Amino acid sequence: MSRLKQAESRHSKPLPTIKTTLDSLSRKHASSLLIHWLEELDIPAYWHQILLDTVVYKLFETFKLHQLTKQTNPIYIQFISSNSPKDSKFLKSVYHDDLSLYFPVGGTIRFYGVKENMTAAFREITRSLLYLTYCLYLETEFMLDSHVLLIYNDPVEQTTESDQHHKHTSIFNWIKKFRGSGTAVGQELKRRFSLDKGSKDTSCINDSNKFVRLKEGIDQALISTSPGCKFSCPRILDRLVREQEELTNKTKMSKRMLQNTRRRSSLLSLWRSEPSEVAMVPDIGLDHLSLDTTSLTSFKQHQRLVVTFSCSSDDDHLCMGPVLYQFNYFNTQSDHTLEHILSEWHAKRDTLCHKCKQIPFRDHKCSFAHGNGNVTVSFQSEQLQKKDRWMSWTFCPSCKRGQEPTELSHEALMLSFAKFLELLFYDTRLICACQARPYRYFHMNGLTTQFGYQPGNYYELRLPGLQMMSVAHVAQYDMDEPRLRVATLNSWKRELATHDVGVFFEATLTHLDLLSHYIQAEHRRRQRDAMQMASDSLEQDIQTLQKQIEKDEQDMLRMLRETKVNELNDFRRYFGVQSQLILENLAQWQKEKCKEVIDDCGWDKPDYIRDASVHSFPGSAVLVREDEPTSVIAYTLSSNEYVQELMQEGQSSNKSGMVTPNVAFLSTPGAQLPVTGKNSQVLDRYCSSIERKYVSPTASTETSSFRAMIIEICKSNVSEERLEDLKNILPWTKKVTEKSSTDEQTKELMATSSVGNKKGHNGSLHIQHKFVHNDVEFTCIVYYANEFEMLRRQCGVHQIMIESLCRCQSWVASGGKSKSRFYKTQDDRFVVKEMMNVWNVSEKDAFLNFAPKYFNHMKKSRQSALAKIFGFFTIEIKKKESSLYLDVLVMEHLFYNQHITKKFDFKGIVERHVGEYQKEQKDITLWDGDWLNEYKTKLLVQNKSLFDDTIANDAEFLSQCNIMDYSLLVGVNEEKREIMIGIVGAYTWYKKIESKGKSTIKRVVTIVPPGEYKTRFCKEILNNYFVPVQGKFDMSVKTLLSDKLTPC
């Protein structure tokens, strides 16, 4: 037996007693709305109860006592300045004044005691209350027909005061006309929340509870006429709350660890900067949300519902969509009544689909995706006894309980279809007692329409994880600030105590114990008196050695405790020397007293002692490894000399290159290396010097050589006439003098540099750090040192990057044709790419010219999809037998800490496909056409407004910099249901020019100016690649893509 027959066979339950007053929940909801509106429009609080009684309660009762018809009657609003406000009333069928709003029941609302300067505000709030009352009336009738138990108790009234007014003309059109027009009230509320684009910079907030408060505001949002609607928090805000909590907890933990460390060491009392009590998370993406949840302005703006509509046949063949559709409540151009939509589908049930040809509409499923859910509509052919009447019932698939069919009232059928969808998405009163959402059925003349709600498995579009904070909230650097995270430095310190010092002394004592056992065995073997005395003497020597070693261990651990965490290398050097002295003394004693024992102490030395290619430079905690070039960068950025240079750019350049080492290490034996030059110091065969480095990039290298390369390629592929055309369209054909280009670069650099107008660095923005040990010379040039330092601090990676660069490995990047060497830090956080010379073009020079524009763009943009560069360096390692020279960029790894199951590379060329045989390869990067054909309609996305604006802004910037051939890298994380995106290839100039020039020069899509590349890139990717799902708090869509809800 079908569910319809089962429902029809059940005994009917009596409907609830008809009430002519609002239920308690609706009364409380109307009261709460009015409190905020009065405060906003600056209407005295004593009007609160008067307006409720005169408009809401009286009109609701009037509607209930008169049957609703399709005929509408005017309701006028009249203001009389005399008499008491308590005399205000609704006059049924009495018509005065000149402005009418049409409702099923007509009359005049007469307000007494209203001053002339308040009439506009009263009109505004009265229109809103009329709309609210009408909606509550229809929703109440629908709830009663749905057997929802409504509670009728006296509500607790509240009063308050408020600010502002606005004018509109009809009860439903005022909602539509209001959209797109801002008011002072809305702007003021946005300013209060610090979320308006024009307000002060809010890229990070100095209040750890801000996101929590915003989330609580959404939980209690007053943006709907429905009192039972509880709106879900946008995923981006939910994630910001979690990230803020995690970051705050980590900061507090770091502070506790730092305080515990200080209590153990008086030397650490020199610290002047501390981790802030509250860490800050950038509020990236909140500008694209409407987070004002209590004002009248917000209430009007939210009288809409944006859904992603699609229609498919029973075999899941997509016949229409997915497309965006925006309902404006009770607006006949975009919204209709529930009865109208059901009747339209009923009339088309036998119509064949245009796409399927042979399948009627009744065999299709319609889907409405919105927020975090999806409402699916399906159809069944069944018969019910009553004809020409809409019957309704529900059935819960979880607890298997349902309701009997009930004939819907005319008022319930007059409910807006969009409001009905809003109730299905958000109203908690329609949830079953088992907390599941039941199916809702409508039946008439043989056709049953089923509405079912399911959670939506949508993907959040996520920008690169590292975004910028405001400069105002970035901590300035000083000498005592930890160069790496405190937790990491303390972890290294503990490892030194346990794995290095502890293991060494354990191995030494174990070896002494072995010698003691050997001596005792020899004593038992030889039973002569003379040897007995010798044995006793040796055992006493061993006991003395054991006590001395135990004392040395305690002294060593004390020395470690007193070592600053930024200078752990000083202890490593001390430990290396002292451990070697202890082993030599032990070996000498063993050779003299126990020469029969040939085994040495079995201690596995740490690599910085064992391996000559690992260097412990003083004044840092970072080890330099010759086979891991990024460690050279890590040491420079963490060294005392480098930090001093950054701090003293405004002082005289005649300063010491490094701070005085700890006194404990001055007695360390070793030869002194002579060195000349300023800012240098030598200690124990360690030499270090630092200075500002002037680098003059060739201004015309990029332009002239790239143009020449293009022309040379074209000569062998196109005619002379076509060659001239190409010369004309290439933007690089304009000649620029080196002087003017240099002047432009200097001007741009001074505008973006944080130190551009300061003295003390001889006009150079780059720092060269040279350091030598055991005839191995290291050089690290840090380009735009202060600019990149500030960028790293704004993104919160100034410590993490040094920590990550300590260890690296070679990496073969998939999907590219670059001949550059790549390295990846062992923790996967950062990618290091070598800069090349291609077609006589130095990528190094190109980047030095590009960098000022990059800093300016990052400064202006609150968020960016560009894979961020966090440093540009030259690394040089010189040894007698070999040398290494690298120019490298350090960039963020877009997919760090992400479980990526599918990767895509988009260029806006829909014809790009990966070969079928390649798709089966592991870790393959797919292309545009593969996404469009197989994944686009399956992976619906959220947060697209932020994505669109960010990509368009970045593409415009790259176009202005004459950069093309960049890609949008996309990674799908199935576990977190996220799609990670980032623009890559923008900093790898000309990486694919050779292969393109020889293989695809004749294709239209290849040689195009950067402006045209940007236009195609944005047009295709932003408009055609992703299907968005809008939430209730997303800003209104810019373009509607559909004007109908059926494919037939």
UniProtKB/TrEMBL annotation:
GO terms for biological process: phosphatidylinositol phosphate biosynthetic process. Gene3D superfamilies: 2-Layer Sandwich, Phosphatidylinositol Phosphate Kinase II Beta. GO terms for molecular function: 1-phosphatidylinositol-3-phosphate 5-kinase activity; ATP binding. Residues 718-1025 form the PIPK domain. Pfam families: PIP5K. One of its GO terms (cellular component) is endosome membrane. Keywords: ATP-binding, Coiled coil, Kinase, Nucleotide-binding, Transferase. It comes from the Eukaryota. Residues 528-562 form a coiled coil. InterPro entries: PIKfyve_PIPKc, PInositol-4-P-4/5-kinase_C_sf, PInositol-4-P-4/5-kinase_core, PInositol-4-P-5-kinase_N. The keyword Transferase applies. This is PIPK domain-containing protein.
